[in-house]
């Protein structure tokens, strides 16, 4: 067993050596424990001290041997390879930054780690956190980094908790305009589109829409939406004012108000149908099922924004569908052929709405659910 593998054990050996040397100097034959001023207190007797240190030495050797006995030779080689290869990348595994730094400093000072027990010679390591580190290395499960946190500003409202993200098996993206509602239903397990639908809204001609009329429309739409674990829609503007040179245009304000009412009702109805009616009366908040995605993210990720102007999504979607059919990209959504055909048979306006809905859905899946590093890095690069 290498000497470097037993730091604590070596300390115990030095203790024994020091005690023996002291006893030789004073002469155990001439000076007994009874003659010592400390003899009245048995724990301080030389013989008791030597026995205690020997027990400590035996315990340390057993502990260090047990560390290596828990792993096969192949497992030991894999762990040592990771520890010695690149200490700067250790924080990918189950280890704190401080301990990773201590490993790097120890290797720099003492050379490569030659045995598993060596790691307990490094400051900050205990038997427990050493086992956790070794386990994460052997299972080849580096800690996942949430790169989406590097994106400036809030990308989702409310925040998507880790427990909800892990348990999510299906996502429904809903894209709402004043005249239509589109939705995309995605199965998370295989990243496949199962529904991609355009639904036009028919308003009675010549009739002024009342709040009850809008509620009826919202109710009908909500009833035909498939159920999902998570719903996502576009975060709406906080003002009803029109953009451009005429922000106070009465017609535009009326349309924006009607759309805002429709969105609010659909969101409320979706949350209501998932509501647990057995909750305590003391509950002041409902469990949110609908998440609002920052509207500029799909434009930036897929390049459908030129300056401040949106361009048609038709060509972007067509390119995407062709890539999917050729399986050109990894971690890419699967789109069944019948849905591709459906999209290509639509009119230009319907294609654009379906395109916006799909890009919103894919952005949410890649950034918030799968945390695809390529997509996140693309966003970060385009924001520079």
Automatic annotation (TrEMBL):
User: GO CC annotation: what is one?
Assistant: mitochondrial nucleoid
Q: Which range is the signal sequence, renumbered to this chain?
A: none
Q: What would be an example GO MF term here? A: DNA polymerase processivity factor activity
Q: Name one GO biological process term.
A: transcription elongation by mitochondrial RNA polymerase
Listed PANTHER family: TRANSCRIPTION ELONGATION FACTOR, MITOCHONDRIAL
Protein name per its UniProtKB record: Transcription elongation factor, mitochondrial
Organism per entry: Danaus plexippus plexippus
